[in-house]
Amino acid sequence: MHHIRNLTALIFVLVVVFSTAAFAEPTAQWAVTSSFDKLFLVKHASGSMTSYQVAEFSGSMMTGVGTYNGYVFVADTISVSGKSSAVLRVGKITDPVLNPTIEWIGAPITLAQDGEILKQPTSLAVSANGGVYVMGGRYVDNYNQTHSNYAYITSSNGWQSAQVSVVNLPSTSLADVAPSGNGAVFAHRNLREGFVDQTWVTTAIGASSGFGKNLEDTGYLPAGIVAGTNGYTYVANRSTEDQPGAGPDDIGSISVMDSATQTRMGPAFQLDDFRPTDIAYFSSGEVNYLGLVGDDGGLIQAIRVTLGEDGMPLMDSLMYQQLDASTKHQCAISEDGKFLWVTNTQSNTVTALDTSSWTAQTVGVSGAAEFISAFMPVGSIVIVPEPASVLALLTGVISLASLKIGRRSNRKYS
């Protein structure tokens, strides 16, 4: 009899466990975004959005943000002994379900190396191996030469300490940085060559940067860059040369580069009046897409562009979604590719776009959020079994248990 009671209890537990898993709510989507002096976590779950202010630093000038394996990285400019200093703040995201917080690790990391100081930190990217790239702004040295630089930061002890390299890129004006495998790619202008506003791309692996590549594909004024998993890198341009030799016009475009060979894939794909400020890459099933945000002749829009099997943008596939007002939007794709996060700086709002339906939901934040990064809390993934799998498992357990009971009941005792 006790075997029957044990079987009944086992079946009950399995039914409760698998029913809970099968009907659990989808995993929440999260993003972290920065204003000048505040940091926010934003959640999208069960059709609604919530924002949480998790940090405020007086006197800060926060810019780029990134996440990796539960860590959050924030580029910042603070005052040290009366002088501005570029730093990297590192924290750990804790308890996003019940009490979203960030626990900061140690003091901010100064972004300088042997006299080379990062100037005006802006965008930030985290590579696949956890290395952090912080892009600097353009500056002029004592010899009236123009430069940009970037910082590369790593840690081998949970960010209790860090190794910092600062790399000088002469004659450049950096526009954006994005992860590319274990390295990064920069979109920029070259201020020494011919038409100074043409789109260039430079690759980097840690503190080693390659030679810049002028795409010479009619794209000008690069604003955003993303490396796709399909072997191509895409650049969002604010201007395009419509007539050969005439110089750039106020026409947005997308440059496409073979990531391995750094060769352009034909002329830039024109977006007409749409002038993008950022770009993202994502996949749904076997189809790849680009998401772009920017100004479309005075109307603020997010655009979804389908990519063909050859990786090229299909310009007759565009889907549009109007956004809140902002002169500069930033965007980031969720880890599963289901949501495109967008900041609306002038409106103090953050938008989550469903990448399948291209519909939007928006939530307010108590600051002019600009830079944004998506993340999924470590350990938050819920495996939802198919009903057929649950039934098969229960049937198997019942059959094995019944067989065991039957064997016990057929025993003969002397």
Describe this structure in words.
- This protein has helices spanning 2-22, 387-409; strands spanning 29-34, 38-45, 48-56, 65-68, 71-80, 83-94, 101-104, 109-110, 112-113, 116-117, 124-126, 132-135, 139-140, 146-154, 163-170, 172-180, 183-190, 200-205, 208-209, 213-214, 219-227, 232-240, 253-258, 263-264, 269-270, 274-284, 287-296, 299-307, 319-322, 331-333, 339-344, 349-354, 360-364, 371-375.
- The protein has 414 residues and is mainly β.
- Strands 4, 5, 6, 7 and 8 form a 5-stranded antiparallel β-sheet that branches.
- The relative contact order is 0.13.
Tags for this entry?
single chain; 414 residues; mainly beta; five-stranded antiparallel β-sheet; 2 helices; 34 strands; disordered C terminus
Give the helices and strands, then pairings.
Layout: H1 2-22, E1 29-34, E2 38-45, E3 48-56, E4 65-68, E5 71-80, E6 83-94, E7 101-104, E8 109-110, E9 112-113, E10 116-117, E11 124-126, E12 132-135, E13 139-140, E14 146-154, E15 163-170, E16 172-180, E17 183-190, E18 200-205, E19 208-209, E20 213-214, E21 219-227, E22 232-240, E23 253-258, E24 263-264, E25 269-270, E26 274-284, E27 287-296, E28 299-307, E29 319-322, E30 331-333, E31 339-344, E32 349-354, E33 360-364, E34 371-375, H2 387-409
Antiparallel strand pairs: 1-2, 1-34, 2-3, 4-5, 5-6, 6-7, 6-8, 9-10, 11-12, 12-14, 13-14, 14-15, 16-17, 17-18, 18-19, 18-20, 21-22, 22-23, 23-24, 23-25, 26-27, 27-28, 28-29, 30-31, 31-32, 32-33
